[in-house]
Amino acid sequence: MLFNPKPKMKREELYDREYELKEIKNSLKKGVGLVTILGIRRLGKSSLLNVSLNELPYRSVKIDARKVYSEFGNVPREALARLILRGFLKTSGREKARTLIRNIKGVRFLGMGVDVETDKSVNLHEVLERIDSTNERFIIAIDEAQYLRFSLARYPELIAWALDELQNVSFVLTGSEVGLLEDFLKMHDPNSALFGRLHVEIMLKRFERYQSVNFLERGFAEIGMDVTKEEIEEVVDELDGIVGWLTLYGYNRYLGLGHANALRKLREDAKKLILSEFSKLKNLSHRYELAMRAVANGKHRWKEIKETVELLEGKRIDDKNFSNILNNLIRYGYLEKTVGGYLIPDPLVEHAFR
Ligand SMILES: Nc1ncnc2c1ncn2[C@@H]1O[C@H](COP(=O)(O)OP(=O)(O)OP(=O)(O)O)[C@@H](O)[C@H]1O
Ligand SMILES: [Mg+2]
Prior knowledge:
354 residues, Arc Repressor Mutant, subunit A, 3 domains, five-stranded parallel sheet, two-stranded antiparallel sheet, binds adenosine-5'-triphosphate, binds magnesium ion
């Protein structure tokens, strides 16, 4: 159902995103080696990725770089090699799998099946070359790929090499911390490995108002619930096209809450979630939180945000240091810089910091 709160897997559960889905599928069918899916949190990047992979006739593996990072504190190449190989071998028969990875350094089979273990001596180039040699298209999808920056391995160089040398392997990378992923891949930096490489970029946007309204109407029709026009208007006014929040509101209604309670519960749950996601930045410097609070409370110009933070902190802050704080908030997707000054793109994030 449309209000299923997990990332969607099937086309029927995905509202719209027709254009993006087509773009991703066509690019991969044409053999484009790198597709990026970008956008702030909860716009449906993982869902779009899942559905795309499901609809394509190719073998693929999906790796959650955030999860690997939280397990190891970085993204070691042996972990990545293991996940890629497991994804690749899962659908190969035992004999085929054994032949395929015979004599790859640092890779060995676990038991009698097709499961593999890897160690530090593994070479990802060799792994990818071997997969490429099967002459079947294979897609390596990495969700929250900005976490790849936590590694001694130089993944942008690896991807650049794969784009040049391999015929059958493509990468799809998603990132909610858009600025961080862009800084990491450096597609636009003439000194970097990926500079100027052909790739397709999908930037997910918030739903337009009519889409949000239609999404809710269809979701409620699907579960046979009558919801008034006023309720829908109020939800859409407050959640501003962020499909993840619209979905959770619908799910709360599905579970039996009335309109006001569903919205209240959503705000409370969202606040907890947002502040816990934010804690990694807050641990780096309390100024991140102070700056967010200033913007949430109506300060939008660089100077007035800085003055508010200085007031809250009780001391003067160096200009350059303060610009770094705001630029990092942009890189992480918490702020946007517009002609009207610094804004918070997600209304519930704004609410959480008010
Ligand atoms: N097009 C869509 N139609 C229906 N539901 C959607 C759609 N896109 C996303 N959702 C729902 O919105 C929520 C967030 O989706 P998803 O996890 O795919 O987004 P995301 O951009 O990957 O988020 P995050 O940045 O937190 O990883 C989920 O509940 C998902 O089911
Ligand atoms: Mg996601």
